[in-house]
Amino acid sequence: MTKTGQINDPGFNIITNKKGSKAYHLYVTYTDDGPRYDAVCVDAEQDEFEIDFEDGCASLNTVKLTYLMLRPEQLHAIADLVEEAEAHFEEWSESDMGRDFDAAEDAGETTRFRNKYKDVMDIRSEV
User: Which one of 72, 88, 97, 107 is at 20 to 30 Å from 43 when CA atoms are compared?
Assistant: First the structure.
């Protein structure tokens, strides 16, 4: 029996919608709501799980798993990712894009912001 409790489970949990992601690497997607940070990580049993970062915290998505087994070095790596996301957000906030985002208060300005940065909007990329 596997962690998901299914006897015929093919084995390890794989995050299919983020296939090709490097484990414990930070990714950013710029959206109309600002940058969104995420990572794909692997637990001690080689199951992949997703992490989202917001307000200095990591949210571990374990929808398909009943538990995670994390070694101390994996917990440290997650803490490092939280710090990296916070540092990147601070840099972004001080950049032209961050200042333009803060200035876009109404629908027209949001449209101008989106058009100006259309080459990077809604594209997930490694930080």
Answer: 88
Residue 112: count other Cβ atoms within 10 Å of its Cβ: 14
Question: pLDDT tens-digit profile of 58-114?
Answer: 999 988 788 899 999 999 999 999 999 999 999 999 999 999 999 888 888 889 999
Tell me the C-alpha distance between 5 and 21, whole Å.
26
CA dist 96 → 26, 62, 103 (Å)? 22, 36, 10
Q: By the 8 A CB rule, do 21 and 125 touch?
A: no
- d(C-alpha 120, C-alpha 117), whole Å: 6
Comparing CA positions, the residue from 27, 69, 25 lying closest to residue 47 is: 69
